[in-house]
Amino acid sequence: MARYGDPMSVPVILDVDTGVDDALAILFAVRHPGVDVLGISCVAGNAPLAQVVDNTLRILDAAGAPAIPVAAGAVRPLLEPARAARHVHGADGLGGIALPPTRRRAEQAGAVELMRRLILEHDRPVTLVALAPQTNLALLLRTHPEVAGNLERIVFMGGSASVGNATAVAEFNVWHDPEAATIVLDANVPTYMYGLDVFNRVAVDHDVAVALEHGDDPLARVVGALLGHRVALSEDELAEYTGLIGDAGAVCSIVDPLALRTEVRPVRIELAGYGRGQTLVDLRFSPGRDDAHGLADGWTNVEVALAVDAERIARLFLDTLGARA
Q1: How far is residue 302 from each of residues 40, 79, 263, 310, 325, measured CA to CA in Å?
Q2: Of 7, 64, 89, 283, which has fewest CB within 10 angstroms of its CB?
Q3: How far is CA 267 from CA 111, 134, 154, 182, 271, in A?
Q4: Tens-level pLDDT at each residue, the chain (325 residues)
Q5: DSSP state, 107?
């Protein structure tokens, strides 16, 4: 269990759209002693906002978490309508996994006010961990720019230096609200990108997930069921098992940064055309002709995760949750 207030732990605020992989990330963050979860803000993404909040509260119960404040934020992107990923996370966002009703309640002040208060009141710089579309973060940074002075960095699960998943070139979290992601990149806060290049690498073997789901430990059963959730390709067909820990890997990267290879690279987000929502990551090692074509502006230096020791991160994840089969 996390040692709340421990000076050796990293103070974080999680921003989530709690579907299956956000749930895994919350479980890991709450249980690892090196992470001090100050609060959780919720945003529409994998599921509608009310469902995201309820899922988050129930997952905190499953983790045996203390009274961590949770607040609801944006119901939709800054410009686009809401677009829940029901085919990926199921109608309830948790793949139909039955969790008991919760007595926890979200704070009335809302996500932006919760984040503002927690950041400004904390005696150490806070890490914002965005595991969802970054609408809440954009609203926070535009409404209360003073919070940037007490932010250590922003770690976000999103983007890709290669392929996409929402489209051929755009990853879902950035694609869902590219204007918000652009505002966050432009906020002059150190930023770490945990994108699809590493997200798609860290997985748990199928036999381990099955053993966890059918074991005796209640938390392990939840972890196994979440890992075993399969995407619905149609009404009659499910995708193959992947066992991806998903967003949890971004939190793992805070605990064990040496398990990943990162490079500081210029990044920009496309806002128009088919490439809308694409994170362009400049991997060149020599200058190109951007200046000549008027393309030199709009880039932000970001620490980008490009490779990962997948076995090491998966082992960290399972060991933290006491979920070794």
Answers
A1: 24, 25, 8, 22, 37
A2: 7
A3: 27, 16, 14, 10, 13
A4: 444 445 689 999 999 999 999 999 999 999 999 999 999 999 998 899 999 999 999 999 999 999 999 999 999 999 998 876 666 767 776 877 889 999 999 999 999 999 999 999 999 999 999 999 999 999 999 999 999 999 999 999 999 999 999 999 999 999 999 999 999 999 999 999 999 999 999 999 999 999 999 988 999 999 999 998 877 666 677 778 889 999 999 999 999 999 999 999 999 999 999 999 999 999 998 777 777 566 668 899 999 999 999 999 999 999 999 876 5
A5: B
DSSP 34-62: TEEEEEEEE-SSSS-HHHHHHHHHHHHHH
CA distances from 30 to 80, 116, 251 (A): 32, 21, 10
* Interatomic CA distance for residues 251 and 130, integer angstroms: 10
Question: Is 5 part of any domain?
Answer: no
316: its two tokens: 């960290």
- Asked if the structure places residue 4 within a domain, the reply is no
Instruction: Give the H/E segment covering residue 22.
Output: helix 20-31
Closest CA to 18 of 36, 30, 10: 30
Beta strand 300-308 pairing with 260-269? antiparallel
Residue-by-residue DSSP string for 59-79: HHHHHT-----EEE--SS-SS
What gap in Å lies between CA 121 and CA 84, rounded to an integer?
33
Q: Residue 209 has which token pair?
A: 């997930």
Number of domains in the chain: 1
Torsion of CA 34, 38, 43, 46, to 10 degrees: 30
Q: Which domain holds residue 199?
A: 10-320
CATH number of domain containing 71: 3.90.245.10
